[in-house]
Design a protein that fits this description.
single chain, 13% strand, 3 strands
């Protein structure tokens, strides 16, 4: 490219266009970060071990979510206690001081309906 005198009318136009191209998309009055963050919501009282199950159920749009015992184990990263496989009350009983596992689906506003013979649990959304 030939040398252009930046004080000439053509040079001033070229200088303004090149400055505009360099600063394109940047404005002094624009915020530096436009990242959208979710509002601070209170964390549910779910034990840390059962938080993956809560998160999974809470983020599902379906009215009923069916999970096999194997899928629940994969979500949790450990095998649930023996009563989970043999006693329906482990899933449907009231959430007491020793039964903090039920907080995973109650905090997600769901009820659990196990089918132990099929090794499946249906989590239904509360109205």
């Amino acid at each position: 490219m030939a040398h252009v005198n930046l004080f000439s009318p053509v040079g001033r136009v070229i200088a303004r266009v090149s400055a505009w191209l360099r600063n394109r998309g940047r404005r002094e009055d624009a915020p530096v970060s436009l990242r959208v963050t979710p509002p601070d919501e209170p964390r549910p009282a779910v034990p840390a071990a059962y938080m993956p199950l809560f998160t999974y159920l809470d983020r599902r749009y379906a009215a009923t979510v069916f999970l096999t015992f194997e899928q629940i184990e994969a979500l949790l990263g450990f095998v649930p206690p023996a009563p989970a496989f043999a006693d329906a009350a482990w899933w449907t009983g009231p959430c007491g001081a020793n039964d903090r596992h039920a907080a995973a689906w109650t905090a997600a506003r769901r009820t659990a309906a196990p089918q132990l013979s099929a090794r499946v649990v249906a989590f239904e959304r509360l109205p």
